[in-house]
Amino acid sequence: MVNLVRGRRSFSCRLVKEAEIVRYSDDGEKFFMVSEEKIGVHEAEDAKVVCEIEGGKRVLCVAVGKSGLLFTGGEDRSITCWDSSTGKAAYSVEDAHSTRVKGLVVFENKHDGQTSETPNILASASSDGVIRIWDIRMIAKEKPSPLSEANTKSRLTCLAGSSMKRVVLDT
Fold first, then answer.
1. Which residues lie across from 42 on neighbouring strands?
2. What is the count of structural domains for the chain?
3. Strands across the sheet with 79-83, in order?
4. Angle CA(39)–CA(125)–CA(24) in degrees, nearest 5?
C-alpha cells in the first residue's frame, strides 16, 4: 500500500497469489482482492484479513455496494451478493446470463440529494453482449427476472456506470 500524501509505502504484505481484481469499499475501510475463485476481504488500515470468500468458479467482476455488500459475477453465469463481514452469501441469481458475467455496477438510490443506505439497482453484462438491469430487492426471490435487457451484439469485457441524481419537480 502506498500513502499518497507522503508518496511512500505505508505497509506491505505477502500474497499467496497475485490479485486479478482489487476494489475498495465506498467508505475506504475495506478492500477486496480477487484471485481466481477466492476473494480476500481486508481492512484498509493494516491489510488484516476480515474473511475469505470461496466463490466456487472463477470470479471475473466485482461491484461494491453499501452496507458491506459485495456483488460478484463470473464463470458460473451467476450473480452472488456476499456479506463482506461474515463472508457468507446473502443471495444469488443462478444463471443470471447464458454466458459468463463480465461486469457489474451497483447504482445508488438518490432522491432529492439524499443517498439511500441500500442500493436497489444492479446492472450486469455478459460476454455474449447482453446487459441486464436487476432490482436488488427482487433478487431474494427464487428466480427473479431482470427489469430490462439490451443485446449490444458485441463481445463485452467490462461494464461501467454512474448514479444520477433524481429530481422530482412540482408542477
1. 31, 49
2. 1
3. 59-64, 69-74, 79-83, 89-93
4. 35
